[in-house]
Amino acid sequence: MEQRPPGACIDTTGRLRITNPSKPALLLSVTVALLLGAGCGGGQEGLQISEARVGAPSGPNAALYFTARGGPDALVSASTDVAAEVHIHETLIGEAGTMSMRQVPRLEVPTGGELVLAPGGFHLMLVGASELAVGDTIEVTLVWENAGEVTVSAEVVEPSETMDHMEDE
Amino acid sequence: MFRRSVVLVMVAALAVAGCRGGVATGDLQGVVLETPQAKGSFVLTDTSGDAYDFGDRTEGKLALLYFGYTECPDICPVHLAQIAEVLDQNAELARNTEVVFVSVDPDRDSLGEIREFLDHFDTGFVGLTGTHEELAAAQEAVGVPPATISGEGDDYTVDHAGWVLAYAPDGLGYSIYPFGTRQSEWSNDLQALASIQQGG
Known about the structure:
heterodimer; A: mainly beta; 10-stranded mixed sheet; two-stranded antiparallel sheet; 12 strands; disordered N terminus; B: Glutaredoxin; 8-stranded mixed sheet; 10 strands
């Protein structure tokens, strides 16, 4: 198997693969080196995407979650072969505890901060992705204002496991 | 008054059955209601097409009631998966628990689609729906705000109560479970609630 540097790499197709998101300094240097060495166009220094996961669908739609760091940047759209459409959604909890879901045009990754997509907050709704099952891995292309297209891999997990990120905090 | 009778019931249960640990609502980790709520009564249609009387069918059982819709990809599956996970690990608890999911999106969710949705979690989960009027009456009967439609065309979403209602086997609701309830809290509370028996 090809040896990858720890941290991350972006290949010439813009694919970002995070293997060790806990080392941002190393990640940045690896990213810069790759940008310089591979002439990788469209990528932005330091945009890091981790914990990409999809809750196994029980209905026609599935939800994709991830965490992005290394802004400023903004997610403006996404696509995948396994869904007819991908909507950027926010789940809102009203004062009375009522849950509602809204489509939003963009999601910002603040400078020095992070954008967290997690159950009960933001998610990407994969419309018509009912065939996905636990254990599948899908590829989703995220389109960022600055970084351009970035394709990430996300594993399909049990819906309860999509919460793990929240439970860890 | 409700609390006192519950305590009496529990003391009796402890004395008679030697129930492990002993349970008081203080042990509950969900959102404990100030006053226990009597179980609301309503009749809707189950996924077999038969009438389902919530009060009758859940009598003497731990009942968990949730209003949602099958196109909800985010919070509905998490609630149901969490409950299924607890019941998977405790067959006795599962036997005495009725999990009832009510689709508040009857225009899109057919009975078959509701069944298919629930089977992803547990084939024993009960799926219900009805006319808009019946659904409004059911939500009113159990004290949750009525679900409303947002948006237009086929892409509309449904705003709905985000919490799970829980009724102990004695027919009272002591606590509710908003989205974000942790797995460990579900596990603790389902066992605690199941031990609050009716009749003393």
